[in-house]
Amino acid sequence: MFAVIKTGGKQYRVAANDVLTIEKLEGAAGDTVEFNEILMVGEGAGATFGVPFVEGAMVIAEVVEQGRARKVIAFKKRRRQNSKRIRGHRQHQTVVKITDILTGAAKPAKKAAAKKEAPAKSEAAAPAAAPLFTAPAGEPDNLTKIKGIGPVAAGQLNEQGITTFAQVAALSDADIARIDEAMPFSADQISDWRDQAKALAE
């Protein structure tokens, strides 16, 4: 038996033991999640279609891991305006394994129900990730003066310990690679910021 579920604005055809990658859900590896927006369940002549969802149907899955998709580069250039922008984005995703397809308002097993409470405990116990760099003492610079860094990007850089023009100007190629991997900015974009910061830091 298979079902068609809706999650993250997308539809997926799933069956027991299927492993699929979907838009990010809350939860740590091993936690159980429930999908209640079931568009269809069953197969052949016995299939049931929802209007829009099948009443009493539910799909149970186990979180396998949390991750991020491959980086997508967005490039924008304005002709004769001496303006271009390169941005990288890595979408957060969750890998889940389908464990059960329930119909007729059946309830999940006690084991699954107990694991549903795990996310809050796991999140409370998990230590906060350390920033990539150590912020220097003193007043921070206004990083938005660097073309291509807006208030949101400046806040993200500050959270990672990058607060001054001098720090951005002193970034090594290895530092840029670390930022490229951990943050939603491309290496070319960061290199451009470094070049601008050298003039601002003087």
Strand and helix map with partners:
Elements (H helix, E strand, L loop, with lengths): L1 E6 L2 E6 L3 E5 L8 E4 L2 E4 L6 E2 L8 E11 L3 E7 L4 E7 L2 E11 L7 H6 L2 H8 L25 H9 L5 H5 L3 H10 L4 H15 L1
Antiparallel strand pairs: 1-2, 1-5, 3-10, 4-7, 5-6, 7-10, 8-9
Summarize the structure.
This protein has helices spanning 110-115, 118-125, 151-159, 165-169, 173-182, 187-201, and strands spanning 2-7, 10-15, 19-23, 32-35, 38-41, 48-49, 58-68, 72-78, 83-89, 92-102.
Structure commentary:
- It is a single chain.
- With 202 residues, the protein is an alpha+beta fold.
- It has two domains: 2-125, no CATH class; 143-201, DNA polymerase, domain 1.
- The protein is 26% helix and 31% strand.
- It has helices spanning 110-115, 118-125, 151-159, 165-169, 173-182, 187-201, and strands at 2-7, 10-15, 19-23, 32-35, 38-41, 48-49, 58-68, 72-78, 83-89, 92-102.
- The strands form three sheets. Strands 2-1-5-6 form a four-stranded antiparallel β-sheet, with no helix packed on it. It has a four-stranded antiparallel β-sheet with strand order 3-10-7-4. Strands 8-9 form a two-stranded antiparallel sheet.
- Mean pLDDT is 85; it is low at 112-118.
